[in-house]
Input
Amino acid sequence: DTRGTFWEPWQLRAAFARALSDMYGREVPAYTTLLEVSHDVNADVVRARGADAERLGSIDRVTAERHGAIRVGTPAEIQQVARIFGAMGMHPVGFYDLRDASSSSVPVISTAFRPIDRAELARNPFRVFTSMLVPSDRRFFSADLQRRLERFLGARTLFGPELLALADRAEADGGLAGDDAAAFLRLATAAFELGREPVDQAWYRELEAVSAVAADIGGVPTTHINHLTPRVLDIDDLYARMEARGITMIDAIQGPPLWEGPDVLLRQTSFRALAEPRTFRTPDGQIVQDALRVRFGEVEARGIALTREGRARYDAAVVQGATPEVWRRTFPATEAGLVEQGLGYFTYETTDDGAVAREPIVYEDFLPRSAAGIFQSNLTEEGSKDASQAGEERDADWMAGAVGRELFDPFDLYAAQVAASLTSAAHLRGVAPE
Ligand code: OOG
Ligand code: NI
Output
């Protein structure tokens, strides 16, 4: 019985991630299969590689680790999302513009809510990739459609007043008492369940003709978790095991290739969006059943965080094709090489015998190209886009204004972690930091 206890933000975050996972498993049974296979893969990797398997996070952290993806329509909605995640110690980090990421593009801009302190990440690293529609982008929406979209979005309520009041209290007080924590978790989880009310068919289909993502966001009166992604230690093995179970995966693993050198950034793959039954209201008022393919099952493997220099190399390499040959030309084959060339982030810890041990920092963020690929590979409708129109300017400052909070830069966060470790290692050894 936890009613009497006070829940700190990280405890709310861990409990929310669990509740969301249980809910999503009920809604999308293939997700449960994905979790089972992920557990098996991780257990095998730990058995085979021992301590080395935990270099980028303890097995407890990795087993509990998830990222979610949600999509909202307006600045007012993303501000409310920020209050709910703020209660759980999750802050907006990074800016992603998916409108012109390579050939695949979707009419959204995004950030990720996640813990930013090292200790908080170690307790529970739950993160949520959060996208917001850009109805004013003329490449996708006419002035008339923009007006109707904004009217529809402005009239809906995604998060009720009780949930938001509890979120604000948690943030102000640094947590919630037992009963309030239970109510907060229940309401927050319910806010991301798939809506059951009938969908206006004509409106949904009109938006879908422009972009399936626009329809998923602006065609329905509620929001929902789009996917919930577990982390695996061997994504190639996972891919093979899922296919062996008869689950069709997208064509490729996105991100860096499998090669003999250090894993960097993020590799992701997913099973195709499944047809889920939804209720529609037709133009003549009839209620009919149909199916929508929107939600999918993604899985990821995480590697070492790259510096700006390392990231620039990554971006250049991806253009040439993420093959082992390209990787061997682009990246050093060892962690020491990444350090020497200033490509990766590492911390420095003083060990019991007074030596200094170097540890890689795991990448906690996302890759817009891979994100757009995941979006796109799961869409059945191509959508239509008028490339002759100019896109609306959006950047990190604009996003910070929309969210109404400081937007953290991922590179700054990693660099601060390195600096803090150097200071404490130097302090322990009684020497000045470099
Ligand atoms: C988000 C896609 C981005 C990832 O892992 O890169 C993402 C979405 O489909 O809403 O989740
Ligand atoms: Ni994802």
Notes: The pocket of nickel (II) ion (ligand 2) is lined by residues 67, 69, 129, 227, 229, 298 (CB under 6 Å). The first strand starts at residue 6 and ends at 7. The first helix runs from residue 9 to 27.
